[in-house]
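Hi R.,

As promised, here are both runs. First protein below:
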Amino acid sequence: MAPYVSRINQIDAAELDVEIYKLLKNETKDIARYSAPGKFDKWQAEIDIALKFFIWKFSLQRGNSTFGQRLLNLHYANLNQKKAVLYLLLTVLPQYIKDKLANENLSAHGDTAYRLKSLVDRISNVISLLQLINLLFFLHRGIQSRVIELLLGLSTQSITTNKPRNIGYSYMTRELLWHGLMELFTVGIPMINFHYLKHTLQKLWRRKKKQQDIKLLPTMNLSTKCAYCEENPILPSHAGCQHIFCYYCLKAHFTAMNMFHCPKCDVKLYTENMERYTVATCTSNDTVLSLKGPT
């Protein structure tokens, strides 16, 4: 059984081959830019053939891998000279015919040229459809990412399949430090009472307010906001001062500590005083809420 080659490596090798060809093509265009306008345009199809030939000559003809495969340590396991020549012809000729028909003036050649162009376009559409179908099969099977590989029966293998992986000392040190820090944070962060720290810092920067001896009943109207999150209260609750909290804002604090200071009036709030409210009476624009009882 042939060694497994990952799908991503095969796709990357095909993309690298395309990018190498585009890079060389752009270089030739830069050279042609300093010549007379249109002088190289009519020879563009032949220039493309020459570029693909040189790429093939220095890759598949001299070895068993394309440049993209060589960069990723891949090669064709069953490539011979006959298949290499067929690879070149199937890669070059269809695109050359299509480019020549696209650049030629077909009106001077009669209906035969139009029929030939129509035939070439249909064949090109069929090839594109085959490439799509082959891609779907490739994603399922993991072999032969390109149609030309399927037609020639080429299979991709890794050159370094049995080569041991070398891991440097510095890399292992970084990994050990990173995992050690992750374990420290995972164990230590849940033990930190962030609510207590937040209120302690707020007390240092906030002027201490004088607590009132008279217990004020909380009131709520359409403009009332949660004393902690400054949003419309969800399941309005309170715990001993005139300010309203969201149920979950207040419950989260009491889960972390049994007592904390109201962020608005600095009154000490205790977990046993936490209560919920329901609408009792409505007067003019204000909605007065009365005590329902502890939940």
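And here is the second one, sequence first, then its structure tokens:
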Amino acid sequence: MLGTEAIRCVALDLDGTTLNSQGKLSERTRQAIRAALERRIHVIVASGRPVSSLPEEVVGIPGIRYAVTSNGAAVRDLETGEILREYKLTPEAAEEILKLTEGMDVAYETFIAGIPYAQASYVADPVRYGAAATAVSYVRRTRKPVEDIRGFIRRHKEELDSIDVVIREGKEALWKKLETQVEDIYVTSSVPQLLEISYKEAGKASGVRFLLDHLKIAREHLAAFGDGDNDSGMLQLAGIGVAVANAVPGCLAAADRITGSNDEDGVAAELERILAEF
């Protein structure tokens, strides 16, 4: 691992990491990001969110150009709108996911061309499916409700960026089933009630690695920040992997450093540290 003076790129998870528990960007964190950009450090958004639901208060910061979205299913140039790399679930995988979860007390989301669609009952009452109360407004604001979501997925199975299974109980058992019984998929999780499924070559680490190659930056020059299982690979890839204090155990174990929580401006504190030693 290189010293902090070598950092040329920063990859930021959003929810639970860069954004606070209210889903907002603090002024201190905004200023730390701007300071990094002023030092000619590339700042990449690396999120499980599809592009259409990325918060303007982050991607609107001048200088943030690239985003890894939908857990690496798409890598985008936000300035030009170009999709630099894209993966779709195979139709066979989509069918197998639906078969494995048939009859279970679950809801579904699916992303198509960066737009999230979700089971109407989940959009109406996210908490019933295990979502935190603080996530309700985000779900209702960003998801397009669909009554027959399973039928919708089948009708669009050639176009799916990813499928999320919203599950309140039995998540770990279903995760194992999906990984052992469905081919060509990558399974991860960003929050307790979600299993997020995309093509096998996806993942934040894969997307960030692609952008590092695009920018001609070695991985040792990357600092990555996260809190979820879906961030662990990205933190392991980075020269400096930083977990916020509220991260899940797997993410904490993958990190080189642990900073304050997302409600304590942990990302800002570590960026300030990096810049002070730059």
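A quick note on the second one: The chain has twelve helices and 14 strands. Let me know what you think.

Best,
J.
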